[in-house]
Every structure is written in structure tokens, then in C-alpha cells.
Amino acid sequence: xxxxxxxxxxxxxxxxxxxxxxxxxxxxxxxxxxxxxxxxxxxxxxxxxxxxxxxxxxxxxxxxxxxxxxxxxxxxxxxxxxxxxxxxxxxxxxxxxxxxxxxxxxxxxxx
Amino acid sequence: xxxxxxxxxxxxxxxxxxxxxxxxxxxxxxxxxxxxxxxxxxxxxxxxxxxxxxxxxxxxxxxxxxxxxxxxxxxxxxxxxxxxxxxxxxxxxxxxxxxxxxxxxxxxxxxxxxxxx
Lengths: 111, 117
Known about the structure:
The structure holds two protein chains of two kinds. By secondary structure, chain A is an all-beta fold. Chain A contains no helices and eleven strands. In chain A, strands 2, 4, 5, 9, 10 and 11 form a six-stranded mixed beta sheet that branches. The relative contact order of chain A is 0.34. By secondary structure, chain B is mainly β. Chain B has strands at residues 5-7, 10-13, 19-24, 31-38, 42-50, 53-56, 65-71, 74-79, 88-95, 107-108, 112-116. In chain B, strand 7 and strand 8 form a beta hairpin. Chain B is globular and about 40 Å long. The A-B interface holds A 31-34, 42-46, 49, 87, 89, 91, 95-104 and B 31, 33, 35, 41-43, 45, 48, 50, 55-56, 91, 95, 98-100, 103-106, 108-111.
């Protein structure tokens, strides 16, 4: 089992739709969680951190479920510009610097 | 401010040739990471440095790969000899302070796209 797993998609949604992605992690000692966004043929960029209590940034909501070992990202009122690949990332338990990424979920928002 | 700078942006080489990828991290960042991205395997951590010292190289696929960081402003990833299965995008990233203690934000370079024929 891979350390961080995501549904690769693609998720094809119309503008204005709400879409949610999940990401599961296998190491229960993992402590820090993040969502990155990667545009086609570009580098990944941090979208948001995921806090234990859940957190929101505009149209984006991130949640953590430690019991089931998954994190989620919810995008409301999706825009064409949200089309990208969304990577979840986890700091490997017991390490200080090992940021492990999932393979990403591709989102395509259509007019 | 300049971000992470990688070179070359694109390289096409033949199997067996030596490949050297270069990275200049953001000034003042004390962590530097090398990742490799392919469709099949996603974004894989190869090695990372803290204050120029390699901390974890367990992701380096085999002895053909080596990485160095002779000073705080420069790192290289070398593949010798290269093989077609090394074809990928290689990203360098840098970070300030311990990831666990900050936002978890890595600043990635634009990547070096390597094709080995």
C-alpha cells in the first residue's frame, strides 16, 4: 500500500459545482497535512494546510479525519481557473522533513 | 525576489550519458529537496538536505544517482549513466526552518524535464 493515496480522477465538473477530493495516508504517526495545487506542466504550489479542527480559505475547505486516516478538500462554486491537479502531502511520521505527496487528483471545470 | 532556480529546463540525452541537474535555492532557506515526477509514480522525494548536509537519501533509486550541496546556494543531482527509465521531471524545492514547525510550504523550482533516449 502506498503511503499516500488519491483517486487520480479526472473529475469533470461544470462551473459552479461543488467537488470534493479525499486522500488517505497509511502512517498513523503522520502529523502534518497539506494540499498543493499543480497546473499543467508547472511546479506544485501550496494551496492550504490542513488543521485538526478543519479549516476554510474562501471557497476551499480542508478537513482531517485521524480515525480513518484521510484528509479531504472541498471546493465550492468551482471556477474554470480551479482546473488543475490537486496533490495531498503528508509529513512522514517521525521525520522532520519528509514531505510525501500523493499522485494527485485531476480536476477539470467546464463552462 | 528570485525563487528556486533550476537548470537546464529541458534536456534530451542518450542512454549512458551523464546528466547533471542544478539548483539554486531561495536565499536563506536551510532545507533543500530533490523530487522526481512521473505519470506512473507521481512526485517522489529523492533526497533532502538541511544546512547543506544530506539528511535522508533513502529515495535515491540506485547508485547511478548522486546529489551534492557544496554550499548554501547550490546543489546538483547527477545521473551516471542515464537510462530511459530516468526520464521524468526533476524538481528542486527549498524551505525555511523545519517543515513540521511551519506551514509545510515548499517552494519548488520550475523543474528540469529530462528525456533519455
